[in-house]
Design a protein that fits this description.
This protein has two helices and 14 strands; from the N terminus they run E-E-E-E-E-E-E-E-E-E-E-E-E-H-H-E. The chain is mainly beta. Strands 1, 3, 5, 7, 9, 11, 13 and 14 form an eight-stranded parallel beta sheet that branches. It has a six-stranded parallel beta sheet with strand order 2-4-6-8-10-12, with no helix packed on it. It is globular, with a radius of gyration of 16 Å.
Length: 136
């Protein structure tokens, strides 16, 4: 069992995990995971493969993901290959990344339809519209 003062956990490139993974801090995945990942922060290495659902406050993906992703802050690097739906609050996609799936802000899937028209969409006035950034 990891100690509570641990700052991050690593799944090395020579490791394959079959089953769900949960971490309360940062998780760095260079190996293969066949199961769902839930963590505070995920960093995925370029050669890494994840087959399952990813849920994280922040995620920086550069490997292959087959499954849906939900993250408050999501960065998809150019080497990433994603096959699944992506839910985000803030999204950055590097040119060259491949995503086969739908993009949707996390707030849109939880907001009632009647209230969605009343949302403040003006960013100058503190609007809550999700942010999409395309990186070159």
């Amino acid at each position: 069992m990891a100690s509570s003062n641990s700052t991050f956990s690593v799944i090395g490139s020579d490791v394959t995990i079959t089953g769900n993974v949960a971490a309360s801090t940062e998780l760095h995945v260079d190996g293969n995971v066949e199961g769902d990942i839930t963590c505070a922060s995920l960093v995925q290495g370029e050669g890494s493969v994840v087959k399952g659902v990813i849920q994280a406050e922040s995620a920086r993906l550069s490997g292959t993901v087959t499954g849906s992703i939900s993250a408050r802050e999501l960065v998809i690097l150019k080497s990433a290959r994603i096959d699944g739906d992506v839910h985000y609050d803030a999204l950055t996609i590097e040119q060259g990344a491949s995503v086969e799936g739908r993009f949707a802000p996390r707030t849109a899937k939880t907001a009632p339809a009647a209230k969605s028209d009343q949302r403040n969409t003006d960013p100058k006035n503190g609007g809550d519209e999700p942010k999409l950034t395309l990186a070159g």
